[in-house]
Amino acid sequence: MKHLPIFLSLEGQLCVVVGGGNIAHQKVSVLLRANAQVKVISPEFAPEFDAWIERQSIRCVRRAYEPGDLRGARLAFAATDDASTQAAVVAEAAASGVLVNVVDVPELCGFVMPAILEQQDLVIAVSTGGASPALARQIRDQLVEQYDAAYGSALRVLAAVRRHATVIAAGAERRKEIFTNLATSALVAHIRRGDGRAVDQLLADIAGDDVCLASIGVDLP
Length: 221
Description:
Distance between the termini: 39 Å
Number of strands: 7
Order of helices and strands: EHEHEEHEEEHHHHHHH
Largest sheet: 5 strands, parallel
Structural class: alpha/beta
Number of helices: 10
């Protein structure tokens, strides 16, 4: 295993993207979904950035990268084809302890970006260690057929049951039993069919008669 697969908490953390093209736009999109504070450095920006700039969702620095631009950053992306800029970003990142990804140059990367499947709180990451991002995306697309939006809704139910666990059941073993049985039940299938009554019956059977979607505060689509 070349890389340690982890999920970073970036909420409120400064992340820097060097570059203003389509690839940089993709990286900014991922960072914003992770609730990061994003600074983008580029002399020019693709039109896709306009909405973010207008809403001030990101901080734009309209010039070429300069040493010191990574100060205070948690991680950085070098989304530029300029080799000298890539080298300078990597050097500053190494000196400052900033995680860095140089797009399409895995040998310069402190981390690599996986292909990501998101269904609300369900996040599946597929990586080939930088060897073939295209293959990672293909595998991700195949997983979408199996792990559809119903899984995201099921996670909302499971999270709500967990929040109510101290009321639903006393004792760690009983709570563990509830969570295990729900996770291996027909919950996803019921949600996929839009059968709220079946979900309510399932919750009552596994977690207790007083447990239903309404009691845990979940509305299904």
